[in-house]
Design brief:
The structure is a homodimer.
Chain A lengths: L6 H12 L4 H8 L4 E5 L14 E7 L2 E6 L5 E7 L18 E4 L3 E7 H10 L1 H27 L2 H18 L7 E3 L4 H8 L3 H13 L3 E3 L3 E4 L2 H8 L15
Antiparallel strand pairs in A: 1-6, 2-6, 3-4, 3-5, 7-9, 8-9
Helix pairs in contact in A: 3-4, 5-7, 5-8, 6-7
Chain A binds a DNA duplex (30 and 30 nucleotides) through helix 7.
DNA sequence: ACTCGAGCTTAACGTATGTTGGGAGCCTCC
DNA sequence: GGAGGCTCCCAACATACGTTAAGCTCGAGT
């Protein structure tokens, strides 16, 4: 268990992992007011079509971005780890074109748009860091699309696990070769564009081939090299400035 | 045939379609130096892994963003129309995590990063417009992912045609219900994550059901309502400020 | 006008994945 | 400590799509 980290520290860690941040800028970030909230899955954070006036920072647990088709299909297009600002785009795109929801019980912090805007005005380099953050979100979308469009389900799952390991390491939230991941297979199926039945099949195959061990709450990587190979994984697209902190 | 439009005007039209642009800002955009180049398909504009020092504006024809899997699969994840800046992210993400290539013969204009940076510094609202542009790129990725992950090939194709019509209208490049689109089915197949054989099947179905007419060089929409229905299309995600100019 | 090649179409057959349905494990709340 | 409800798992069957391979069309070049 990681000892108590201030919510703002996670955000700072995240930005540090993709951009240089000065002492003064760190102070400005630490002063951002965060209104904390605890949420369970099934309770949307922001809904499609809304016009939010604040952004949300993930503090604990996992959230996701999703869209629905008119006939009930749901595609999850991004999974967020602590430190991420999932709806930072709302700063400059008025209307939400997607929904944001927890996929595990989680706590988030809200920051009013105006406060973020002030920080951008006073510290232009932080503005650039946030712009860069949105560009990396897009880079992750691109990779996810390659995954969904060109790879079989087996590889898609391997790929996501690789990505999560790297991103969690960047904010110091892995526990050796495993990490907490209390996400149901039905949710994951929606992320990979497959059925939950097939999701179960694939998890079974990954376990059988000794790449992964999965429980309801944790994922453990058993063979990192093989997993990367299977997932055709190359972390360039994450645009991290440096690697793991610990 | 549209009468000669200055290359910069297309860029201006595009930015106007997503953001308010003042007279003075228009002047600044018009003064941007564009180094024009003509390219045929198969000749990359920027390659994965490179660190460009300039951005490219599409002036005529179509370009695309793509990524490759290690076993030779290619996923096209975005198609650009005149006025777009396909690699604007390179302003703040040093390394390219994707390739950029023409998918028809086309002409593009290059602008050095430093010139764009100057414009952003001198006209902060233009900086915001460009940020917004990158956010809309991401919104398009999201929609494309929903499409690929949750819809059948038939709907995917219908959806893209709808999207292209709207985006081309926004820069004034449709001809009634049809538009020039000299893109091979093999390329389109890579965009939809299907085989070229299946691409042909789907085009056939769309024509047979009277939604679309396709030639090697042009696409004609025969039934806009049905096409939107089939493609589950809602243009919100394009975040256009107003609709068609003409 | 003929050739040639790239792109398109069609058919036959194989497979990854979807769907339905049933049953087993495991929390949670009386 | 049952009862009910989520999850997960498994089996049987259905299908959209991939693969291969063969013709066909059309436009470019001579």
């Amino acid at each position: 268990m990681t000892r108590s980290i201030s919510p703002n520290d996670l955000l700072i860690r995240r930005l540090q992992s993709i951009h240089t941040v000065s002492k003064e800028e760190i102070r400005a970030l630490r002063d951002l007011p965060l209104e904390i909230a605890s949420l369970g899955p099934g309770h949307d954070i922001v809904r499609m079509g809304e016009r939010p006036t604040q952004c949300c920072v993930v503090i604990e647990g996992f959230t996701c971005i999703y869209k629905l088709t008119s006939d009930g299909g749901r595609q999850i297009m991004a999974i967020h780890v602590p430190g991420d600002i999932p709806d930072i785009q709302s700063l400059h795109l008025g209307v939400m074109d997607f929904g944001l929801a927890p996929i595990s019980s989680c706590t988030v912090g809200y920051i009013p748009h105006e406060k973020i805007q002030q920080v951008c005005d006073n510290y232009p380099r932080l503005g650039v860091a946030l712009w860069r953050e949105t560009l990396i979100d897009a880079a992750i979308y691109r990779d996810w699309m390659l995954n969904i469009g060109q790879c079989e389900a087996f590889g898609r799952v391997a790929h996501l696990v690789c990505e999560l390991v790297i991103r969690l390491k960047a904010v110091g939230l892995t526990e050796g070769d495993s990490f907490k991941f209390p996400v149901t297979q039905a949710n994951l199926a929606d992320a990979f564009g497959i059925s939950s039945v097939h999701m179960s099949r694939v998890y079974g195959m990954l376990a059988q081939q000794g790449l992964l061990k999965v429980t309801r709450t944790h994922v453990t990587v058993l063979d990192w090299d093989e997993l990367q190979e299977a997932g055709d994984f190359d972390p360039t697209y994450l645009h991290l400035e440096r690697n793991t902190p610990a």
